[in-house]
């Protein structure tokens, strides 16, 4: 792929490594540039890296009216050798294409996606924040651009990659478990829909549920299936729980559950974790009974942003509280978090191919 570079003048872009004195937060900052590529006449074309800034888009663009848009979330890390590495970026590229297929968006070759992401990171590598636990958060996305008000797939699209220099998700340390609301009022997805994709509309539809959870002092809703009998997801994360023998249980992937790359990674790391990690259908009534009996001792969520989000308790709409174990972050959850983050940071070697070095093409 021949990428065109239309960069900011050197006087307007970062020329020294980013060394923030304060916590930079998660997902709020932007780097100097973004990657763009367009789809028209049946092919992806004009790959380019340009200054980060607003899009010019028609008011009738299909994405604005009918939500034909998908996205991904990934991370890159600075290792002790001074090089930047992306984590399992091939899995993100694969998932973006699966999401695109669900929304009738043309696929982008995985190798092209990865090259685009790495080229942008290399261009803006000075934006990596020199801060403990930091990363470059990577947001690739595709949106429909055709100016048309009929409800049908667009014939034109834009693929964009943007970067966000981010600090640790847990700025105060990995010590504060969250609470989840168990409710029958909200459902993330139903069979035959878009639940297994990262469609933009899925996340817009979750905002009302998140607002309701906050009214109960909860961080998110524990989503149930449409029959209100099975556990599915935790807000924007996969759910997990841990039995007293150390076994990690993740709800079985279906077309109503997004296949978390973090969950997939733990399923593949089972032996290294020293415990069994498996998937099964999780019935809500049995889950509650097992928490109450002490059979389930820890629980939480898996996702790219937080990696592992420990859950200390669940609250029902009648204000009953179900506490998991002692309500604190348990040792098994800590080990999960430590194992994966050490691989990401390069402190220990991960499975072959998980970490990909961003080559220096612009030195």
From TrEMBL:
- Per its UniProt record, what Pfam families does this chain match? Aminotran_4
Task: Specify the pathway.
Answer: Amino-acid biosynthesis; L-leucine biosynthesis; L-leucine from 3-methyl-2-oxobutanoate: step 4/4; Amino-acid biosynthesis; L-isoleucine biosynthesis; L-isoleucine from 2-oxobutanoate: step 4/4; Amino-acid biosynthesis; L-valine biosynthesis; L-valine from pyruvate: step 4/4
Cofactor(s) needed for function: pyridoxal 5'-phosphate
A GO molecular function term, named singly, is: transaminase activity
Under InterPro entries, the record lists: Aminotrans_IV (IPR001544), Aminotransferase-like (IPR036038), B_amino_transII (IPR005786), BCAT-like_C (IPR043132), BCAT-like_N (IPR043131), BCAT_family (IPR033939)
Q: Which UniProt keywords apply?
A: Amino-acid biosynthesis, Aminotransferase, Branched-chain amino acid biosynthesis, Pyridoxal phosphate, Transferase
- EC category: transferase
EC code? 2.6.1.42
Catalyzed reactions per annotation: L-isoleucine + 2-oxoglutarate = (S)-3-methyl-2-oxopentanoate + L-glutamate; L-valine + 2-oxoglutarate = 3-methyl-2-oxobutanoate + L-glutamate; L-leucine + 2-oxoglutarate = 4-methyl-2-oxopentanoate + L-glutamate
Give the family per the record: Belongs to the class-IV pyridoxal-phosphate-dependent aminotransferase family.
Q: Which NCBIfam families match?
A: ilvE_II, PRK13357.1
As for what it does, the entry says: Acts on leucine, isoleucine and valine.
- UniProt protein name: Branched-chain-amino-acid aminotransferase
What taxonomic classification does the UniProt entry list for its organism?
A: Bacteria, Pseudomonadati, Pseudomonadota, Gammaproteobacteria, Alteromonadales
